[in-house]
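Aim 2 progress update. The chain analyzed this quarter is reproduced below.
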Amino acid sequence: MSFDYDVFLGGSCGATTWRQELIPHLRRLGITFFNPQRDSWCEDMIKLEHDAKEKSRILLFVVDYRQRSLVTLIEIVYLAALRAPIIVVLPDERSFVAKPSEYYDRCKTVDFVRRVLHHHRVPTCVSVDEAVTLIEGILLKNKAVKESLKSLDWLAIWFRCCLTTAGSLFSLPLNLIFFFILHHVCSESFRMHFEYILRYRFPKIILLARVVKYAALLMCMFYNPIFFILLAFCSLLVAYVMVPVLKRLQDIALPAGNVQYAYHLYMNTTIPTNECLAYLYSRLKNLKVTFALADDFLPEQRLGAIASSLCVFYAVSCSTNSIYDLVKLGYAIGSGATVVANFSTDSIVHNTSRAVYNGGGGSGAAAAAEGTVATETESPLRSYCRAILYLKDMASSRDVSFFENDLNSAVDRILKCLQCCCQCSDMQYDCCSSYTSTKMIA
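Predicted structure tokens:
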């Protein structure tokens, strides 16, 4: 597949300057890029950005803690669920600027995004410089050796990649031992928080560990070359054995056949729970449908619940301005489930004309219209309206139905989806008995 761009520069816009600082470096290396940030934003930009993403080799998304970045976070989890070639720069939650009423929701949202990235093994960087180093290494693999040697900048990148690859290869046995111990003793949630604490709170420990590792390898090479050669041989042997195994595990992790679902329906609602559930009960009483409520799961369990559900139903109330629920909806769309969503926008109809998107452009970025949280009181409204536009664009190529202020039609739609599932012979299985949290509508 041919690509028009090497890198798509997605992420926060508005008053951010990271693109202006990065673009000269990309031009010096001859790396082609698409910059979605514009002086004025319009709805047509969504289609332009969508096409640019499909034509880009790498999708870089940078989250700036000074912006709301709602659409950026939605796009990140959506692309992660699609297993797109995405690299994310995610800041420390403690650095976010937010109103006191929004701070908890933002931290909860970023924690969910971090779990999605960790679950899908998406490269997550602390800084833009770290992401650029990773991008350079990826693009170097697609460059011919002669072409790389013609440029001093690419020659330096090639030399740096050789050193890091050699260091990683020679320390492979020790890394594998640490990897197996960590994965057998610790839970996935603990591993994620452990990595987060090391990378964001104590980065000097990681740097010190790398310096010690490389110093030990150099000392071993000069003072005990026989042991060094033996270590190199063992590392090559381990790599020779592990590469086919890892490829096999990847094939197993991505089965092409039918998927067995634990639930027919996963429900997430910010509408008063009793009202919404009572209405659903009355409409679905004639169907035996297994379902799961988002509130029944811990944050680390919700990814698995969405992935193991055939249909996903969202009822989102604009009055909450909930970043968290919209981001989870973006992930559900990308996961491939049949999604039905209803947006309650009655409370903002009279303000729609104010939600004019001026300034900032850019993919999934909260542009200047989103602004810094402290400067524009209507920024949550604008973020919400823009998020719906991007979600609708994502839904255009997926099995997704969106409704606005029409809960009845949304329930009719999810009812038809569930009826089709229950009538399909492939869905007649009893896989829900092992889930104690499963509920039955009878």
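Residues 225-253 form the longest helix (29 residues). The radius of gyration is 24 Å. These observations will guide the mutagenesis experiments scheduled for the next reporting period.
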